[in-house]
TrEMBL record:
Protein name per Swiss-Prot or TrEMBL: Peptide/nickel transport system permease protein
Example of a GO cellular component annotation carried by this entry: plasma membrane
Main location: membrane
GO biological process: transmembrane transport
Compartments it resides in: Cell membrane
UniProt keyword Membrane present: yes
CDD domains assigned to the protein according to its UniProt record, in alphabetical order: TM_PBP2
């Protein structure tokens, strides 16, 4: 039994590797996972949520360069590896944009940048400045209206999108597989009740249902997980129900009943493992859908809340720049959503072909 299962998955992996689109999608997903895990080490702005606000340089175009004077903040300290990996590193120094600077014996004299052609003189004691008092930074994707680095927020936002997708898929699979398996295995009155619930949920527009759950639970990070997850289980339940109805009539299930196995053991250990192919395909599709729904909720203001760098929230904060001088502020997170969703769709299509799901359905 185990040997046959291994052979099936090995042959499926070989077929998947031959699908260039699926492998490209898998590569992009792995890159996104790496960025999500180590985003605070990769981002130019490693502060929590990449939320370093410098109002003087707000709304700048990609490639913008500026020198900064680093002035020590009071009450800040360093962080360990895992703390930085999870939460970022609080800034030890305040970043003051400058137009020019010079040093004297005991102080640093700068022209603090306020706006184009506008500056003011500022003197800072050398004891309060960083060991390297002035640094130059390039904002490769520009800055938003608050002067935050768009590239850094895109990188940290990858973690938000993948987290929402992962937790949503886990919730939808747990609820959908449980209800679908019960409906398909027992049929009769149980099936009618569960199918009635599925049809009711199915008839409500997804976004409207998410709004209702979000208003009930409140706005926030974890509420988005639950709201989106509880709206996507119906697809899983319908699929699992149909697969269980077919599989329960096979001989190995009948043999399990004859041997006296309990219904729960037959469902969990014998039926569900043999219908995982279609479930994996729909899980990949749900992952992509969850990313889009979360972005839409954040854009409408009922999803992830500031200062967390959700891609949808970034579009909301900067969409007015599309028709002005700096459209990249809104287009960059839009492209990020498009690429990640495309990656999951390509991978899901490849899984469908590799696992021969269409033949099973």
């Amino acid at each position: 039994m185990n040997s046959g299962s291994q052979t099936f998955w090995q042959s499926s992996w070989k077929r998947l590797k031959k699908n260039k689109g699926a492998m490209a999608g898998l590569f992009l997903i792995l890159v996104a996972i790496f960025i999500a895990l180590f985003g605070y080490f990769l981002a130019p702005d490693p502060s929590p949520f990449a939320n370093r606000i410098i109002l003087e340089i707000g709304g700048e175009k990609p490639g913008y360069q500026r020198e900064f004077l680093l002035v020590r903040k009071e009450g800040t300290s360093g962080t360990g590896f895992f703390q930085r990996m999870l939460y970022g590193k609080p800034d030890l120094y305040e970043h003051i944009p400058i137009a020019s600077w010079r040093q004297t014996k005991d102080s640093i004299i700068v022209q603090k940048f306020i706006d184009e052609g506008v500056s003011e003189r500022l003197a800072v004691s050398r004891s309060k400045a960083a060991p390297v008092p002035v640094i130059s930074r390039t904002f490769h994707l520009g800055t938003d209206k608050y002067g935050r680095d768009i590239l850094s927020r895109l990188i940290i936002g990858t973690r938000i999108s993948l987290s929402v997708g992962l937790i949503t898929v886990l919730i939808s699979l747990s609820v959908g597989m449980a209800l679908g398996a019960i409906a398909g295995y027992y049929k009769g009155r149980t099936d009618e009740i569960i199918m009635w619930l599925i049809n009711v949920i199915w008839s409500i527009p997804t976004l409207l249902l998410v709004f209702a759950i979000t208003l009930l639970l409140g706005k926030g990070f974890w509420q988005v997980f639950i709201a989106v997850g509880l709206t996507m289980w119906v697809n899983v339940a319908r699929l699992v129900r149909g697969q269980v109805m077919v599989t329960k009539e096979l001989q190995y299930v009948e043999a399990g009943r004859v041997l006296g196995f309990s219904d729960s053991r037959i469902i969990i250990r014998h039926i569900l493992p043999n219908i995982m192919g279609p479930i994996l395909v729909i899980a990949a599709s749900n992952f992509a859908s969850a990313i889009v729904i979360e972005a839409g909720l954040s854009f409408l203001g009922v999803g992830v809340q500031p200062p967390m760098p959700s891609w949808g929230l970034m579009i909301k904060e900067n969409y007015n720049f599309i028709i002005t001088q700096n459209p990249m502020l809104a287009l960059a997170p839009g492209f990020a959503i498009m690429i990640l969703v495309l990656a999951f769709n390509l991978f899901g299509n490849g899984l469908r072909d590799a696992l021969n799901v269409r033949g099973k359905l």
